[in-house]
Amino acid sequence: MKKNMYIKTTWRDHIVDSVVGTVIQEGTRHTATRMNNLETGIFDAHDLLLQAYSERQRMKIEIEMLGRVKESNGTFFDALDGQTPKQLERLTAVAISQVVLSAGATSIKLDSIPFKAGEYVTVYDDEQQESVKITTVTATGITIPALVQMYKKGARVARTIATLDTAAQRIAYGVWGNYSISMMEVV
Questions:
Q1: CA pair distance 31, 9, nearest whole angstrom
Q2: Cα separation of 115 and 107, whole Å?
Q3: Parallel, antiparallel, or unpaired: how do β-strands 107-109 and 141-143 relate?
């Protein structure tokens, strides 16, 4: 445990015999040095309370996350105070499928392998998505339980598709889906 650096003042009352007028006990003098010591102590104690609150919030989030998704391995979190939590890491690894994935497929050939066995990933293209747990990792791809849906070549496989909205201090759902684009000629 860290040693308390605060220098404590033992305050004494100034006592005067009211009949004779002599000082029975000399009181502790009220000085700027002693008052500044009090101010420094209050400031430092408040700073430590804020740090302890932030650490408590981080631990609360981590425990809550483990309670909801035991295999999350830090996939998502909300820092609340805008600071990166010390023990949590947002895993944003993404790879691209090199082949069409049919419903029932159990292996995905990828352009890179940023994943580990046991991690959960989201497979998605511009039409659908699903989350699966990686069973094994090979030099060229991953093995998963059978996919429910079909995915186009170029489908993404990601640890998370959530994005951090730092202005609102929240997690937002990632951008994916169908887009309609119209073009016009400008003369």
A1: 12
A2: 14
A3: antiparallel
Domain ranges of the chain: 1-90, 94-172
User: Checking phi first, is residue 73 left (phi over 0); if not, alpha (psi -120 to 50) or beta?
Assistant: left
The Cα–Cα gap between 58 and 146 comes to 36
Fold exhibited by the domain 94-172: Elongation Factor Tu (Ef-tu); domain 3 (2.40.30)
72-126 tens-digit pLDDT:
554 455 555 555 555 556 677 899 999 999 999 999 999 999 999 988 888 999 8
Q: Which amino acid is at 29?
A: R
H-helix segments, the chain = 32-68
How buried is residue 126: exposed, middle or buried, by Cβ count under 10 Å (0-12/13-18/19+)? middle
What Å distances lie between residue 172 and 91, 101, 168, CA to CA?
A: 15, 27, 10
φ, ψ for residue 50 (rounded to 5)? -65, -40
